[in-house]
Known about the structure:
The protein is an all-beta fold. The protein has helices at 4-7, 388-391; strands spanning 35-37, 45-57, 61-71, 77-84, 90-97, 103-111, 118-127, 135-144, 147-150, 155-161, 167-176, 179-190, 196-206, 211-226, 238-239, 242-251, 254-262, 269-277, 280-290, 297-307, 310-322, 328-337, 340-353, 359-368, 373-387, 403-406, 420-426, 429-435.
Amino acid sequence: MKKLYILSVLLIAGAISLPAAPRHAPVAKRIFKPAAKSDEASHAEIWCPATQQMFLWEGEWILTETNNYTYNSMGLATEDYTVDGDNEGATRIVYTYNDNGNWKTRESQSSSDLINFRNSEKTVREFDAVVPGFVTATYGYNWLNYEWQQTGNNWEREVTRDTDGNVTKVERRVLYNGIFDPTQRFFVEYGADGKASKLWSEELTSNGFNLYWEEGDVYTDIVWERTDGQILSDEDLMYGANRISSAKVISDGDELSINVEYRDELGSFKGEIKGLIDGMEVTSVIEHTVCDIYGSYDEVITETYTFEGESETTVATNRYRTDDFGLDLLVYVSESFGGEEEIFEWIKGDITRDSQNRPTEYIQQIYNYDTEEFENSMRILFSDYIDAAGVSQVTTDDVNSQVELFDLSGMPVHGEAAPGVYIRRQGSRISKILVK
């Protein structure tokens, strides 16, 4: 049976950029999202933890790594210095950013003695001039034979626009034998009203003997709830500035209809896909409710299949909760059929905060289907908070610049520093130091 759940990707996993609820075991590292706090007497504070310790549960909490961060004035990590749990190895990752806060270079080094570091990997990204968050190129390098060599993940996307500035084509190319060859294409045609009337994609495919362009989903009869002409893929059709109200879709030879009702500006909607697939009537209703401004949501997908007068219905439920610091509080994925629910993933997180509402401890637990109990999985300790906005406003990269010290609250230190932990700034270089 060809399930419409796969086609629901048109509405959920592809057509909207949903918050990234994890669909896998916890990652080995949790990148902290700083929160800003207004301080009218001085400046907008951006509190970030300079130290982050990661533990995994193995009958007890085992320290697996310690991360030391430095930040720019936007609260974005410019350096991540990581020491493994047994202090036998370390990595250093350095980031640079563009004016829109997107990282444009990421360079990593590794060390086996915590002293001498060797180049490892480097990634360089480029972005679209009109849609700042759209990545137009990723170039990957590895350190081989004492030089950077372009290997690994390398691709480019060329965006073509008409005289009105509307996107008409996006072509993706990948590096092969030293040449960037096209592998995917996305096209947009516009009607007399200046709005997109047809969208379709193509992918380079092989039949074992020859390469040819295979047409993907085709959207026609499009009615827009709103659009700005910056449609960069068929994965951006129900979110942000481009939201479809209705359309017809040809997918694998089957004709489907899409109708969407938008409920608020946060991104809540109710969408329906209907059509015939292999002679079977299929209907999928997706109700997506955004719960807050941080990315939390509830989602229920009800799918009904009717063939020769007999119907069956499945209900998929997705719940995701996060907080203002980007820490996952709940991930829940299940599917019900015939009144019985099967849980595929259930994760919950608990946060301890200090007097200023900043996280100091985060514990994540995963539901064990066999014991029907939650078990410890991951623990993170956050400490040494700094106000990035207070210490990162630099105007020069001169390594000969005057050295300045700040305490962990962001206040400058004058004269001889007492023993303790401080923030050291010299030009654009910011680090944490221990004065004994």
